[in-house]
Design a protein that fits this description.
The protein has helices at 2-7, 15-34, 39-51, 68-80, 95-110, 114-138, 145-161, 165-178, 184-189, 198-213, 229-233, 253-269, 285-288, 298-302, 306-315, 320-325, 330-336, 345-350, 386-401, 403-414, 423-426; strands at 54-58, 65-66, 276-283, 339-343, 356-363, 368-370, 374-375. The chain is built from 21 helices and seven strands. Strands 3, 4, 5, 6 and 7 form a five-stranded mixed β-sheet that branches. The protein has 439 residues and is α+β, with helices and mostly antiparallel strands. Helices cover 54% and strands 8% of the residues.
């Protein structure tokens, strides 16, 4: 582990790995910018400005710069606020929203180059994904992203801080011990602003690296277990980053295969939502456990099986507008009352490697439409195209930044490895488009 963290460099990586990293960076930046519109982002911003002193790390779309831990908390909250951020099937969670804010805050504080930032971000992703795979293997209860993502964040920040091998080991152990080992399925049953423990996990990760750098000690991390040997050995040889998925819809990944199912049926059969009499969703256990009642807030809309399916049928998309402004839509609610769910043993067995679903729709004209078994789109084996990823970036950023500035930001991301200072990337995201100028 220590050899990988200390010696990794994007300069020695395959071009495809660097491209995948830049795609992940563009996606998580877009998700963070769009997340500014949410109530949870406003609360986190107010809290952090009150609790942390002025520093060198920026908050997206804010005039405030805070100490690194405070900026990390806010940006991580925003990154996952709309549930559109990247994920990885084998960890059942979202590495980017945890590792990116922590690495960015430390990089800004230390004014690293674009290459140094990218290298640290790559390290964070690779360590976080493997930590997640191990954590799910070693722990009996399904727990949140923050529990293992913090370990990846600590690794990337340790690289930026120039931590010694001993300090790195302590940072990983501190992050694991202090991280949010939270009961994920209870949050599925009761959606709240806690979500996936991401914001606290990100803050824990950066704090752990800073603590270790100052001499704070921690336990041996899960990478010292026998089960970790093979995953550690493949570091720098096999890049798990290339297995990330990217989400086309603002809802839990477990609901997105069902959205793909109704999308397929609408495109093939050309019916309107007013013609639908009944919708049957065949899916896996975790998906079936999502909320099914009309949402009263954006978190309940995101952790919902029926709302995104109905929203797609009414609007043809499931994005920020739907989960922020259409919660009380009459047509959406009407469709939700016409849905039922069944757990399919074969689809259940395929999870978490694949999130699968089959949808059946009965129409008022007597026709019955059945979708194929659909996979949630955006996985590495069912990917969004480069054009679709780019379109998502502009879909999320243009309403906030405007077309011109969104374009400039996208180009800066593509050229980030040429930047002498990471602040050249973040300058356009903060201050000039202050969303909370009065806070």
């Amino acid at each position: 582990m220590k050899n990988y963290v200390q010696n990794e460099s994007i300069e020695q990586c395959d071009e495809l790995v660097v491209r995948a990293l830049k795609e992940a960076l563009a996606d998580i930046i877009a998700c963070t910018i769009a997340g500014v519109q949410t109530e949870v982002a406003r609360i986190a911003h107010t809290f952090a400005v009150q609790q942390w002193g002025k520093g060198k790390s920026s908050i997206f779309l804010s005039p405030h710069t805070l100490q690194a831990t405070g900026a990390t908390l806010v940006n991580a909250t925003m990154a996952n606020a709309l549930d559109m951020d990247d994920g990885h099937r084998l960890v059942k969670g979202h590495p980017g929203a945890v590792v990116f804010p922590a690495v960015l805050a430390a990089a800004e504080e230390h004014e690293t180059t674009g290459k140094e930032f990218l290298t640290a971000l790559l390290i964070s992703y690779e360590v976080a994904i493997r930590a997640g795979m191990l954590a799910h293997q070693l722990r009996p209860e399904y727990h949140c992203t923050g529990s293992w993502g913090a370990i990846g964040a600590a690794a990337g920040v340790s690289r930026i801080l120039g931590a010694s091998a001993e300090q790195l080991e302590h940072a990983l152990g501190i992050a694991e011990y202090h991280s949010t080992y939270s009961p994920m399925m209870r949050c599925i049953d009761h959606p709240s602003m806690l979500k996936d423990g991401i914001s606290w996990g990100s803050m824990t990760g950066i704090s752990s690296a800073y603590l270790a750098k100052q001499g704070f000690t921690g336990i041996p991390s899960l990478f010292h277990t026998a089960e970790a040997a093979e995953l550690v050995e493949e570091l720098g040889k096999h890049y798990r980053l290339q297995q990330l998925y990217f989400k086309p819809y603002a809802c839990c990944r477990w609901a997105q295969a069902a959205v793909e199912g109704v999308k397929d049926l609408v495109e093939r059969h050309q019916f309107s939502h007013s013609m639908i009499e009944k919708i049957t969703i065949h899916t896996f256990q975790e998906s079936a456990q999502l909320l099914k009642s009309a949402p009263s807030n954006t978190e309940e809309a995101q952790y919902n099986l029926y709302f995104p399916v109905a929203a797609y049928l009414v609007f043809g998309e499931v994005g920020p507008r739907q989960v922020l402004s259409e919660l009380a839509n009459h047509d959406v609610h009407k469709l939700m009352t016409r849905m039922e769910t069944y757990i399919d043993p074969q689809l259940d067995e395929a999870f978490p490697e694949k999130a699968l679903c089959q949808v059946e729709i009965h129409l008022s004209d007597g026709n019955r439409c059945l979708s194929p078994t659909m996979q949630a789109k955006g996985d590495f084996d069912f990917p969004l195209t480069s054009e679709e990823k780019r379109d998502k970036f502009f879909w999320l950023t243009e309403p906030i930044l405007g077309r011109a500035e969104s374009g400039e930001l996208f180009e800066r991301i593509q050229q980030i490895d040429q930047l002498d200072n990471i602040r050249l990337l973040t300058a356009g995201i903060a201050k000039t488009n202050s969303y909370w100028s009065g806070t």
